[in-house]
Urea active transporter
Amino acid sequence: MAELMSRQNGEDVVVQPPLSQAVGYVVVVVIGLVIAAVMVFVTKVLKRTVGEDNRKTEMFMTANRSVTPGLTTSAVVSSWLWSTAMLGSTLVGYVNGVSGPFWFAAGCSPMIVFFAVLGISCKRKIPEAHTLLEIVRIRYGTTAHIVYMFLCLVNNIIAVANMLLGASSAISAMTGMHIIAATFLLPVGVAVYTFVGGIKATFLTDYMHTFTILIILCYFSVKAFTLEEVGSVSNLYELLKAASARHPVAGNEDGSYLTMTSKGGILFGIIHIAANFGLVIMDTSFFIKAFSASPKAVVPGYVIGGIAYFAIPWAMGTLASSVVLGLENNPIFPTYPRRMTSSEISGGLVLPYFAITIAGKGGAAGILLITFMAVTSTLSAQVIAVSSIISFDMYRTYFNKNATDKDVIRWSHFGVIFFALFSSAFSTMLHYVGVDLGWTLYMLGVLTCPGIFPTTFTILWRRQSRAAAIISPLLGMVTGIAVWLGSAYALYGTVSIASTGATVPCVWGTVASAISPLPYSVIITLFKPEYFDWAEFRKERLAFEVDDTQSTNERRTDIEINNEDVSESQSLLKRWGRIAAIWALATFLGHWVLWPLPMYASKYVFGKGFFAAWLVISIIWLWGTLFIVGFYPIIDGRQQIVDVWKAVRQGGHRKRTKDSTADESSSGAVTPTVIQGDKK
């Protein structure tokens, strides 16, 4: 970011939007409402055909804990397919060269896979939970519950602001639509379908949006090479090599864009991996999706999703930033004859300018669509997360402990509307004080990281004391903010938007915020050690009863697990936990250590053949992600699709066979899975 700040030249040259404002409003408002209407219709069809009633809390919030591995994988990819993932990866690629997109991808996949460890542990110890905060409250009490509620809400707010700032800027650049209008209108459709459909609507919309986004990205990956000025990977290499000669990068080996030996790149990698661990672990939407998945879907969904996701920022960030850097001095580039200004770069416009360059208005329309779909899809997860905090952790806990299904659903609806409005207003405030995508991308870890270790210990380490859980994240946040602001002042002589968005202060602040709670927690725990019995989680009833009209497949999932021998259930979930831990360690070592760090140390500048392999492998991986996200959920969920189709053909209602009726009458209402905790 220091490089970006120094490149602001004060030029008041504006690139004319390739699309009209009318197109922007049609996409943001009309298409948003059409998607919402479709999801409302699908929700009603599922209710009539397979008994998925979103008036019941367990269905609205956790989809009766029966989501399949395929849909879970799609939702996991979607959870990280922020508009920031595409806009931000191209931004750091433009600034740092090929190292930027790689570090962006490597800063996302390890913690997604690691979350499988937390998810399966929660399934084993407290399967009736709806939110992370319920776990905190049961283990540590009211004070800790309020502290973590604050940490989670800060995480959700800063995450949504990051998304909306980048998306609104890109939409405004593509259509001329007022940036504030985009900021307020983007959440409208999200609020509608989340209001009606709950978490299942979020899963289904995640699938539809993510599949569409990947189709467009794969199209771009081919279209770029049909442009005469690019032509081939070899020619793109020459263009990037020439760009390195024109504008050498300070801190890169030989000033080249074609090297992993990049000071700016690795500093961003450190910021990004720390910040993203915070964003994942303190994001209640990830816990909700883990609770919504069936026990057998958690680990496959998060492991496959995390590895598949890696290709998106790596491939598109590398390709788009390379094309922009290579063609910036060409008359076909939108800003020619000047370079992009720092405000354009920090606003996330590298990817939109790439799309305009290779595909004109069609490219602009593609960026408009994927930006809209990415931000609405991830917004829906954030909205349902905050809604769950308001309904379960505020209303049900402190205002009405005997709340009924109807009460909780009503407050969930209030939460959806409130957060949609609040997030838009908060993002607008940030815009008017001069904050943009680049600033939030670099500094957000300072605020999201303090809860990483205390939260992980809450789920995995029975000895963390109540005092440690409460004090360590607050001390961590204070430490991180102090180091961040102090570094900005020491290095630049002032505390301002520019200085606090620079790379080095953000690195120091993020690392301090992430790491300091670890010794704080351990030291405080040693002064007054405690020992928590996981069985305590079972003493409080959290789940509502599941309606006995739920689908046969869903009932079968619950019945199978409830009827299994407890020891066999524990053995199965522990085995999944070991698998998750192995994959988490392997992903971190592979994506963040064994692959990039030797390349950084070698000071290697890519040759033509190596660059070709680098780019081609990333694009093949991207296409593989398309097939995983697009077709795995269909194959995996084919039985429910068949059930719905048969029910529709029979007049819109699920046919009850004699066997199934007897089965249901004998079993009665099936409650969510309850598995004995580990008493060791």
